[in-house]
Amino acid sequence: MTDRAVARGAHLRTVVAIFLGVSGLVLGGVWLGDATDRASVVNKAPKTAAAQRTGSGQESQVELEDSGARELPGVRDCGVGEPVPEPTIITLDCNTSGRVASDIRWDAYAADGAAGSGVVQVSTNAAGAAAGKSFPVRLRLYGPKEVDGSVAFTALEVRYVGATPAGESREVLPIA
């Protein structure tokens, strides 16, 4: 009789050990998978105007400048660097990079102003209920001025279409 009790106890310990081992492997796989997801999110994140000028985007920038686009004002990302004409991404919150206008498509882009549409993405690191969300917007650039030897727009109006991250449907940001 004691042999059966010992065998049952050993069997129960084996089952528990297998369960713990499998659980540890599963949890470790989830943890490692999340680390890979975090790394890929960083690679997929929108790039600022400064990053747009590097790599393959630099060649198209040179073509634009050579084709006479030099007279058109550009946008300086957070007021730094050379103005980029017709940017597809503009950082809205330069202190924390918590909000970025991306996927910008310009309907009109001229020396006195520009109008287009895009999406404001709120970083998952940003505080508030809007963190990790996107909001469709209409954008307007205006106030071209010479800044550090180049012509750049100095103001950006953002009009939210529908929901807003902070309750305001319109905001004007200095961008020079």
Notes on the protein architecture:
The strands form two sheets. Strands 3-4-5-6-7-8 form a six-stranded antiparallel sheet, with no helix packed on it. It is about 35% helix and about 35% strand. A hairpin with a 2-residue loop joins strand 1 (about 75) and strand 2 (about 80-85). The chain is built from three helices and eight strands; from the N terminus they run H-H-H-E-E-E-E-E-E-E-E. It has about 180 residues and is an alpha+beta fold.
Strand order of the largest sheet: 3-4-5-6-7-8
Unreliable parts: 35-43, 53-69
Distance between the termini: 87 Å
* Class based on secondary structure composition and strand pairing: alpha+beta
Write the element-wise H/E pattern from the N-terminal end onward.
HHHEEEEEEEE
In terms of quaternary structure, the protein is single chain
What number is the mean pLDDT? Answer: 77
Helix content estimate:
25-40%
Major beta sheet summary: 6 strands, antiparallel
What is the 3D form?
elongated
Number of strands: 8
**Whole-number radius of gyration?**
26 Å
Strand content: 25-35%
How many DSSP H or I helices?
3
Label this structure with key terms:
elongated; 34% strand; alpha+beta; single chain
Short recap of the structure:
The chain has 176 residues and is of the alpha+beta class.
Indicate the topology.
Layout: H1 2-44, H2 49-52, H3 56-66, E1 75-77, E2 80-84, E3 90-91, E4 99-109, E5 114-122, E6 134-147, E7 150-160, E8 170-174
Antiparallel strand pairs: 1-2, 3-4, 4-5, 5-6, 6-7, 7-8
